[in-house]
Amino acid sequence: MSADLLQGSCHCGAVKFEVRSPVTPAGRCNCSLCRRKGALMTPPFPASELKILSGEDSLTLYQFNTRVARHYFCKHCGIYPFHQTRKDPQLWRVNIGCLEGVDPYSLEAGVADGASLSVLEDA
Ligand SMILES: [Zn+2]
What we know:
Layout: E1 5-9, E2 16-20, E3 26-29, H1 34-37, E4 45-46, E5 50-54, E6 59-62, E7 70-74, E8 82-84, E9 91-94, E10 109-112, H2 114-117
Parallel strand pairs: 3-10
Antiparallel strand pairs: 1-2, 2-5, 4-9, 6-7, 7-8, 8-9
Bound molecules: zinc ion.
């Protein structure tokens, strides 16, 4: 598990970022949003390790359910590069498919039980 500085971007290239994070253990999540996206995510890392280099104004925010997690999408190409986690707003995860030089299909990945987390107890 190394924490290399990785370069990332959305598909159209409007959003560019760099992140210092290991890519394993990579994770998928079975919540209602993640199973539609199908993205493989890095482990959570501190907000300070993510730097948006360009295209911050191309990002659009999507929130649902408890509205704690912040899911960011490029409003031009629709690709989802990263999100702020619900468990801890100081922690972020990046979509491994957006990272240069990393093959998401070569990584072993578990599935997190976000579906259980996504139910609002008193809603
Ligand atoms: Zn884009």
